[in-house]
Every structure is written in structure tokens, then in C-alpha cells.
Amino acid sequence: MKKITIVLLLILTIQSGLSQSNYNFEVENIPYQDLTNSTSLNNGIIWDDPGYTIPIGFTFTLGTHSFNTIYIVDWGLGGALSSSPTEAGNVPALALLTQDLVSFESGGSSTSPISYQLDGSAGNRILKIEWKNFGFFEDSTGNDFMNMQLWLYEETNVIEYRYGPNAINNPADTFEGLTGFQVELITSFNFDTAMVTDNAYLLSGNPASPTLVTYLAGENIDFELALNGAIPNGTVYRFLPENLSVTAINKPIINIYPNPATNFVYLQSPNAITGVTIYNALGSIVRECNESFNKLDVSNLVPGVYIMEVSTDKGKSVLKFVKR
Fold this sequence. Notes:
Strand content: 35-45%
Oligomer: single chain
Distance between the termini: 52 Å
Radius of gyration: 20 Å
Largest sheet: 8 strands, antiparallel
Helix content: under 10%
Shape: globular
Number of strands: 25
Order of helices and strands: EEEEEEEEEEEEEHEEEEEEEEEEEE
Structural class: mainly beta
């Protein structure tokens, strides 16, 4: 069997007192859209265990690591990325899938492009990386396929794993003997000592509404943990640095009303509001205001769910609201 995943390298004994990076987690279903102006990484070359270098375009922070280049790493079997291309030192690992991914081909060329694009303006950019119509090394039928994207947000350091159309008709092979796909976010792993040195997050249960299982440095991690089946088309797994959690809305420094809204929303805060950025469900900025106010006109927004990032003189808060 070909698979030698990053998780098999982990020897989880570690001294206490190391750094801890906390992320909250939420799931949303958003219509999947292919990238339209992306830069190819494989340029038609058939790939297996690919290794590619991607300029982020800004400095991204994941836990205790800050970096402006990200790598699809060959030691991650196609579906994992890190701030380093080599198995050395202390690095994070973003594993959209830990199964062994491969390119389909036709006429000697790849039909599974991997590409990236940078959207937005400085300060509010999003790096988007796409794996399109790829297959699985262990799938004996050669018919199972999937699509997925990684989004990294400049201002908030939010991480999104986005999953698109797929057909998994041979789960016994494609899931490699597990109950489903494996999805992980490891905020720091030291290859020199073979130790997890910060929090690790694994998903289990229903892929449409998974359970986030958190392991601290030094804990014994169950790397056979997996989802129960394929990930539905349009699923977004969102990892938010703890201070930006949309789900922590019971204790915000901002109140928003009415919600849902039709024409206007009102913002109430004990702190001075200095600006607002509104993102649509696709992660694009639809409104931006860099001044003090407490009433915002949303009448021109298309009905749907939006994320509002509110800046105050004491920090930022992220809220969700619905436009009717």
C-alpha cells in the first residue's frame, strides 16, 4: 500500500508548557464555484504526490506561525499544505484530505488542474487554491472524483476548506479502509522531534455537520478518526481564530438589529465603531465603510447570508446577518 501519511510520523509525547493556538469551527453550505482567473500550478502535467510553491500575496498567520508562501507538500499525498516544503523543523499542516490524491489524464495530459488566485484589495485579500476533478490512488475503479478549494483570508486569518462536486461510488478503496474522508488542521508539528507541539483539530461524524475533535500537544491522537462518508457538495469547513469566532455571538462587543434586515441594520457597541466590511457567502467584499456610524444601508444587497466584520477602537468582532 502506497499511503504513508504525515500522521504516521507522529509520536505524541511532549512536555507541558508549549504554546496553544485556539480555533473555533463552523460549517456552512455554500454553492461551490470553480475559480475563473486562476494561475495553473501543474500546467497540464500529470501529478501524483505533487509539490508546488504558492505565493500567498500577504502574510498569513496560523497559530504561532506567520508566512507569505505556502506549499502543497509531496509528503502530504496531494491534499495537505504547509509553510515549509520539507519534512524538517516546526511547521503547521492544513489537510483538506489525507487520502492519497492523483490526477486523471487524457492523451498524456492532466485533466485534474491545480491552480490558485488572489482576490480582493490590499488588507482584505483572499488566497484561493483549487484542486479540480481529481481522483484517488487507492480507487481500483478509477472513477471516483472530487473537487475542493482552500481559502486563506488576509485580515482575519480565517481558514476555509471548501468542497465541491464529487462521486464516491467505491468508498472501500477511496476511504482507504476508514469510515470516510480524513480532514485535519494541525497548528504545529515538529518533524525533528516527531511531536505535535500545538493544538490539532480533526473532524468526525456526519460530514454535513461534523464534530470537531481537539487534541492538545502531548495527547494521544486517534489518527484513524474520520468522517462518516463523503463530504456533500457545497460544504464549507471554517476555522476561525478564537477571537474572531462568529459562533461566539452570545458575548459580542457588537449588537446588530434587525436581523434579518431589509433596508438598514443598526450597530450598537460600548466601543467606538471605526469601520465595517461585509462579505457575501462566496467570500467577496460587497460593502466597506471606514468611518464612525451606527446605521448601515443594506437595501442594495442581494438577499442571503452575509458576514460582517466590525472594527472598533478596542478590536474587531465578526457577526453573521441575513438580508431579506
